[in-house]
Amino acid sequence: MSGKDKKDGKSNKGKKKEVKKETRLGLSYKKDDNFGEWYSEVVVNGEMIEYYEVSGCYILLPWAMSIWELMQLFFNAEIKKMKIENSYFPLFVTKAVLEKEKDHIDGFAPEVAWVTKCGESELEIPIAIRPTSETVMYPYFSKSIRGHRDLPKRLNQWCNVVRWEFSNPTPFIRSREFLWQEGHTAFATKAEADSEVLDILELYRRIYEEFMAVPVIKGQKSEHEKFAGGLYTTTVEAFIPNTGRGIQGATSHCLGQNFAKMFEINFENEKGEKAMVWQNSWAYTTRTIGVMVMVHGDDKGLVLPPKVASVQVIVVPVPYKTVSTDTLFDACAATVERLNEAGIRAESDLRDNYSPGWKYNHWELKGVPLRLEIGPKDLEKQQVRAVRRDNSEKVDIEMNNLVKEVKDMLDNIQQNMFDTAKVKRDACIQVVKTWDEFMEALNQKKMILAPWCDEEEVERDVKARTKGETGAAKTLCSPFEQPDMSEGTLCFASGKPATKWTYWGRSY
């Protein structure tokens, strides 16, 4: 609700205006019937994105950007406690530098966008737009790191990257340009690098579980699925029950010394000996917003967790002919002021050319966690009617207890959204031990936990044997919290001795 809207609403309240009765607020598709079309409608009608004339690129509107900004505030504060500094590196990278690390670029080659012309002139050497920034940043690391006193080197940047995605572009989930943070760090020892990988992964878990109210599983990617050119990759994996697909939420990689070797990132250690650094890289993206929408959204639209909603409470007047609109509007304004002073992000909708019912639908579509209604009877009783977005429950709150009750209710909504999502996710997890059980669970759109021999050839074989119209199954991650494995347990796919439990399934 803009200041202009509020001002116009209040200045015109004495005039009789036509109330709009028809609206496209309702969704045409239901989440359970046509998930893809439902999702597209929700993010557009909820005013999160607008489509752009370049396929796979999207305009992020303020309702979405505000969520990204809130997460930036959290993440920046946390990484600064870890002495990680923000920086910015160029968008462009030369072909020679990009192709310096073969395994790395092979992983991105199909998605790299190239600049080949300037005006009408062909560039003598094409320039790539960064798909990620290892090759952009590491020449600087090589120059700036000389001795052990230059370590650790810990940089982060907030930027955009381009990956020319061709298969099913989807807002937030798969786009050709997206926003992210990417951290790049260098250490004298592997132990330091290993420690940071897990510290960052815990921040990613917190983003999903504490802010987005989305349950995730922390684990390690297989050798086949790890970051190209890295030593190992850790991940937080989410799951979308409606589609039966896992989704990689964020990753924290230990790069080992591979890039240090390629880019000659060496230092003189405390013994005066030449050594190579150990490196990490880690990132999360605007994909987080899409995952949140998919998990929590319903047939009325968005459902936003209070911690990430730019408007946590919307206050709506409910006029009646016996009470002056001035009085109602003043009560709404005073309510918003009290909530704002208490640190609650609240706004009022004082537009007088829309009915209260229209406004209810509008803010439900946008996912505002809590709606407060103030009508003549509420004024008499010195109360407000509170309506929760997550479960539609209604309760009357006394004005004397307004701030405490609203804070408690927002906390309860946040927790309830996480608990509900976790119950739904857990109901989709199937433990299997044989190939037949695996295929049955896969066809039922489950997230499958199975004993595995941890052989890449077996993983490739599973992918090949399950390939179909809806995509092949693959490893999602091997969870850090491993269930007990009895002696003699065999791999579900190969019949060889199993070495670990691993989550499998189709994925985005």
TrEMBL record:
Q: What HAMAP family does the record point to?
A: Pro_tRNA_synth_type3 (MF_01571)
Q: What span is annotated as the signal peptide, if there is one?
A: none
Pfam families documented for this protein: HGTP_anticodon, ProRS-C_1, tRNA-synt_2b
Among SUPFAM superfamilies, the record links this protein to: C-terminal domain of ProRS, Class II aaRS ABD-related, Class II aaRS and biotin synthetases
CDD domains assigned: ProRS_anticodon_zinc, ProRS_core_arch_euk
Q: What EC number(s) are associated with this protein in UniProt?
A: 6.1.1.15
Q: Which InterPro entries match?
A: aa-tRNA-synt_IIb, aa-tRNA-synth_II, aa-tRNA-synth_II/BPL/LPL, Anticodon-bd, Anticodon-bd_dom_sf, Pro-tRNA-ligase_IIa, Pro-tRNA-ligase_IIa_arc-type, Pro-tRNA_ligase_II_C
The alphabetical list of record keywords is: Aminoacyl-tRNA synthetase, ATP-binding, Ligase, Nucleotide-binding, Protein biosynthesis
Reactions it catalyzes: tRNA(Pro) + L-proline + ATP = L-prolyl-tRNA(Pro) + AMP + diphosphate
Q: Does the keyword Nucleotide-binding apply?
A: yes
* Gene Ontology terms: biological process: prolyl-tRNA aminoacylation
UniProt name for this protein: proline--tRNA ligase
Q: Where is the Aminoacyl-transfer RNA synthetases class-II family profile domain?
A: 90-305
Task: State the Gene Ontology terms under molecular function.
Answer: ATP binding; proline-tRNA ligase activity
Under the heading NCBIfam families, the entry gives:
proS_fam_I (TIGR00408)
Q: Does the keyword Secreted apply?
A: no
The first-level EC class reads ligase
Cellular component (GO) terms are: aminoacyl-tRNA synthetase multienzyme complex; cytoplasm
